[in-house]
UniProtKB/TrEMBL annotation:
Positions with a binding annotation for Mg(2+): 74, 98
EC number: 2.5.1.3
Entry similarity comment: Belongs to the thiamine-phosphate synthase family.
Enzyme class: transferase
Cofactor(s) the record lists: Mg(2+)
Annotated protein name in UniProt: Thiamine-phosphate synthase
A Pfam family that the UniProt record links to this protein: TMP-TENI
Keyword Magnesium found: yes
One GO MF term attached to the UniProt entry: thiamine-phosphate diphosphorylase activity
Statement: the UniProt record of this protein carries the keyword Metal-binding: yes
Pathway it works in: Cofactor biosynthesis; thiamine diphosphate biosynthesis; thiamine phosphate from 4-amino-2-methyl-5-diphosphomethylpyrimidine and 4-methyl-5-(2-phosphoethyl)-thiazole: step 1/1
Organism: Arthrobacter burdickii
Reaction(s) catalysed by this chain's protein: 2-(2-carboxy-4-methylthiazol-5-yl)ethyl phosphate + 4-amino-2-methyl-5-(diphosphooxymethyl)pyrimidine + 2 H(+) = thiamine phosphate + CO2 + diphosphate; 4-methyl-5-(2-phosphooxyethyl)-thiazole + 4-amino-2-methyl-5-(diphosphooxymethyl)pyrimidine + H(+) = thiamine phosphate + diphosphate; 2-[(2R,5Z)-2-carboxy-4-methylthiazol-5(2H)-ylidene]ethyl phosphate + 4-amino-2-methyl-5-(diphosphooxymethyl)pyrimidine + 2 H(+) = thiamine phosphate + CO2 + diphosphate
């Protein structure tokens, strides 16, 4: 399958959190969120073993059924394993301490989505020096302090996002404690989308929460 256009999937980018989804399953929350308007799903579970993560990624892909790209956080091996099993998965998102994105691209091939976290001008410069087509989009964060990723860099705020996005040669999705109230400021700051965790995973009504977030973004 061909690589999708980031403009089509970055507006409302859901990053899963297994603990926040409980007592519901990640698959149930994802299915509701995509029905409500989530445009992309990244499966993230730092505590799951490889076998369990492959099973979770494949189950999420089955539930999404092609309505949005499905990515996995960090684990290139898990992406390849799920794809080998026939799951409709689209790529990986890597951070600064994961495999280098040029190596990731060589491993996953030309048709996979590769996202990269970047939070400083230096990290942006390194990303921009990569050959064209290596990375599809950049994740900027954390916008606000967030408990879902305790090791995040110092919060950037909307002004920090604007400073980075203004130099970006790639589309940027903002992440970190984002709510519907951030949608308009982030869009004005130059973000191509917003990535959320708690705002959907911890919501009593994930479909309704996704709908409100997307409406806020589009308005």
């Amino acid at each position: 399958m061909a690589r999708p256009d980031p403009a089509s999937y970055l507006p409302l980018y859901l990053v899963t959190d297994t603990a926040l989804c409980a007592p519901r399953t990640v698959v149930d929350v994802v299915a509701a969120a995509v029905a409500g308007g989530a445009t992309c799903v990244q499966v993230r579970d730092k505590h799951a073993g490889g076998r369990d993560l492959v099973a979770l990624l494949a189950a999420v892909a089955d539930a999404v059924a092609g309505r949005a790209p499905v990515l996995v956080d960090d684990r290139v091996d898990v992406y390849l394993a799920a794809r080998a099993q026939g799951a409709q998965v689209h790529g990986v998102h890597v951070g600064q301490s994961d495999l280098p994105p040029d190596l990731v691209r060589r491993i996953v091939g030309p048709d996979a989505v590769v996202g990269l976290s970047a939070a400083t001008a230096d990290e942006f410069a390194v990303a921009h020096a990569l050959p064209a087509g290596t990375v599809d989009y950049l994740g900027i964060g954390a916008v606000h302090a967030t408990a879902t990723k305790p090791d995040h860099p110092a919060p950037l705020g909307v002004d920090g996002v604007a400073a980075l996005a203004g130099t970006a040669q790639l589309p940027c999705v903002a992440i970190g404690g984002i709510t519907a109230a951030d949608a308009s400021p982030l869009r004005r700051a130059g973000a191509a989308g917003m990535a959320v965790v708690s705002a959907i995973c911890a919501a009593p009504d994930p479909a309704g929460a996704a709908g409100l977030l997307l409406e806020a973004w589009e308005s």
